[in-house]
Amino acid sequence: MRRFVLIAVPYLWLVALFLIPFVIVLKIALSDVALARPPYLPQLDITGGWDSIRTFFSELDFENFWFLTTDDLYWKAYLSSLQIALFSTTLTLLVGYPIAYGMARAAPEWRPTLLMLVILPFWTSFLIRVYAWMGILSNEGLLNQFLLWLGVINEPLTILNTNAAVYIGIVYTYLPFMILPIYSALERMDDSLLEAAEDLGCSRLSAFWLVTIPLSKNGIIAGCFLVFIPVIGEFVIPSLLGGSGTLMIGKVLWEEFFSNRDWPVASAVAVILLLILVIPIILFQRNEQKQREAEG
Amino acid sequence: MKTHLLTMTAGAALMASLAHAEEVRVYNWSDYIDEELLTKFEEETGIDLIYDVFDSNELLETKMLAGGSGYDVVVPSGTFLQRQIQAGSFQKLDKSKLPNLGNMWDVVEQRTAQYDPGNDYSINYMWGTTGIGVNVGKVQEILGPDAPIDSWELIFNPDNISKLAECGVHMLDAPAEMIPAALKYIGENPDSHDPDVIAKTEPVFMAIRPHIQKFHSSEYINALANGDICVAVGWSGDILQARDRAAEADNGVEVAYNAPKEGAQMWFDQMAIPVDAPNPDAAHKFLNFIMDAENMAAASNYVYYANGNAASKDYLIEDVIGDPAIYPSEEALNNLFTTTPWDPRVQRTVTRLWTKIKSGT
Q: Using the beta-carbon criterion (under 8 Å), do A244 and B214 form an inter-chain contact?
């Protein structure tokens, strides 16, 4: 019985916070847009008995998904979001790994302080931090004034309202999500393994490559997922820091929802986005499990 | 100790009054009222006024369509109001509770009846035009003293706009404002609902697109006042606010607003009561308070927008009533046009076209 309860908790969590919302969104995606409150049809009326439920289901169709294939805007936006997410996840990893490594190598009495410093920015509202970047990156902003003062540049660089600003904003915002899992993987690592590797003739660099990196693999994977998944659907950073040329699926979703008032098409876009994210993760986990079984 | 006790009693009294006080929740555009009016309403009626603001019709509309917003009074613009009435978002006004309706101005009421037949669901709060704001000095320096600052030629003619690009041009990020203007410029019906006609504006925008620094619906107020940009297509009152801020700052920037002579869009912000308003009774009291001639005049004197209240004209300051950019002459009034909402299919074409104009894809 106790075991059953233990298994039931995560499943309840999954059903309540993932499956039910997903079914609601899917239902809207299969409806038709209408001038009503809420703005789609059909509405489910349970009081009407079986007949009304049957008519309700007969009126659902996949028309909105079909519509998404008729305009190249959607796949271009998906592709561009994937590309931005991949590139910024890589950047975050390159910046985050050395920081996590340094933290894990620091003297034990320093580690809580360093950890605190990584978490500290969360105490300020995310929106305020993004607005602060607007002040830093603008043409008359701090960065340009500093570079002009140094004499590195003669004309202010245009960074705000470009993709470069979007990458800076994403790497800055998501860096803690990359550092924390890698740090926790590295911290648990047994130093004697490195000594053993060096005793067996490894250089320090190859010991890092052959021992440290594989042992922190789980942290790297967790960090990359934590960054990659929210970045794909990111809306705030591209709309505040990006220019009108920055195409991301989050912005397309906003336009469908607010400008076109087409909740069904907006929901269809969201369902596809979810599939794009969930399917690779399921495949990845299955692959991991197979490997573990093969090893076991 | 005594003061301490006093504060405590006062606190308890306040709590008690809060528990019993009636509430009315108003959702209006940002920077759109003289806040002293809010206190005055509370003092006169004893009703607690909770005042929230928004900055786009789309945001308000989504709340209205979802339902259960909790607001008693909201302020959509004409075409949005019309669509939301059709969707069943508002309740009919009980005109017996609105004795101040007699103050309203028939010229405006005739036009708003286009969105709300018989003005059954809404009253006019403010109205204005969509036109061009310029930094007069900079534009004349670049294009000469005869620069067409009162014509769409300034914006839609690539020869002009390409030269102005260096000093900065902003445009409203609102296709419902910009596409009718472009249609007017090429001599089509600005209220056309024909996708083929609307498509004719694409080459017009594509030619000027590289010269637009930003599509945004509120940043231009400050940018124009500071001299960061020299041209903005925007809403009349916003540009007049930029003009006043520049004059106050005394920074050598002279901002001027013009409703283009080819014809400019006239818009109306209407106060309405959601169908599920928690306190419709207090909402009516608020509408009646706003329609009071002196109150309405106070609001206009503060935000520099014209209102739909004929009786308020006696209380308007000369800066407002005497400015043809706010209260156009009869002749200029005839030159203004209104638009009607696009159906969902046309709206989709328009949004798609606008995305293409802004992003190039």
A: yes
Q: State the pLDDT at residue A291.
A: 85
Helices (H) and strands (E) in chain A, counts: 16, 2
Q: Do B137 and B221 share a domain, yes or no?
A: yes
Provide the CATH number for the domain around residue B191.
Answer: 3.40.190.10
Cβ separation A260–B59 shorter than 8 A: no
Cis-peptide into B195, omega within 30 deg = no
Q: Are B358 and A244 in contact (CB under 8 A)?
A: yes
Question: Measured between beta carbons, which residues in chain B are less than 8 angstroms from residue A259?
Answer: 58, 175, 347, 351, 354
Percent of all residues in chain A with a pLDDT value above 70, rounded to a whole number: 99
Task: Using CA coordinates, name the residue in chain B closest to A239.
Answer: B216
- Report domain extents, chain A: 74-295
Establish if A205 touches chain B: CB-CB under 8 angstroms.
Answer: no
Q: What is the pLDDT of residues A95-142, one digit of tens each?
A: 999 999 999 999 999 999 999 999 998 899 999 999 999 889 987 789
- B122-135 vs B255-258, strand pairing mode: antiparallel
Does B244 share its domain with B353?
Answer: yes
Q: Which residues of B touch A75 (CB under 8 A)?
A: none
Query: Would the CB atoms of A76 and B361 count as touching at under 8 Å?
Result: yes
Asked if A264 and A28 touch (Cβ cutoff 8 Å), the reply is yes
**pLDDT for position A92:** 97
Same domain, B40 and B97: yes
A64: contact with B, CB 8 A cutoff: no
Question: B53 with B189, same domain?
Answer: no
Can you read off the two tokens belonging to residue B253? 């920037």
CATH classification for the domain delimited by A74-295, as one of 2.120.10.90, 1.20.1730.10, 1.10.3720.10, 2.10.109.10: 1.10.3720.10
User: Is B345 in the A-facing interface, judged by CB distances under 8 Å?
Assistant: no
Asked if A31 and A264 touch (Cβ cutoff 8 Å), the reply is: yes
pLDDT at A227 over 60: yes
pLDDT of B6 over the 80 cut: no
- Asked if the peptide bond before residue A38 counts as cis, ω within 30 degrees of 0, the response is yes
Domains in chain B: how many in total? 2
Confidence of residue A38 (pLDDT cuts 50, 70, 90): confident
Substitution target from B351, B353, B356 for chain A, most A beta carbons within 10 A: B351
Name the one residue in this structure whose structure tokens are 């195409």.
A247
Q: Same domain for B121 and B246? A: no
The answer to whether ipTM exceeds 0.85 is no
For residue B218, the chain A residues in CB contact (below 8 A) are none
Provide the β-strand partners of residue B201.
none
Question: B58, A260: Cβ pair inside 8 Å?
Answer: no
Assess A70–B contact: CB distance below 8 Å, yes or no.
Answer: no
In a domain, residue B9? The reply is no
Residue B343, domain extent: 129-265+339-359
Which of these ranges, B62-66, B214-218, B318-322, has the smallest mean pLDDT?
Answer: B214-218
Q: Examine residue B5 and state whether it is found in any structural domain, yes or no.
A: no
The answer to whether residue B7 sits within a structural domain is: no
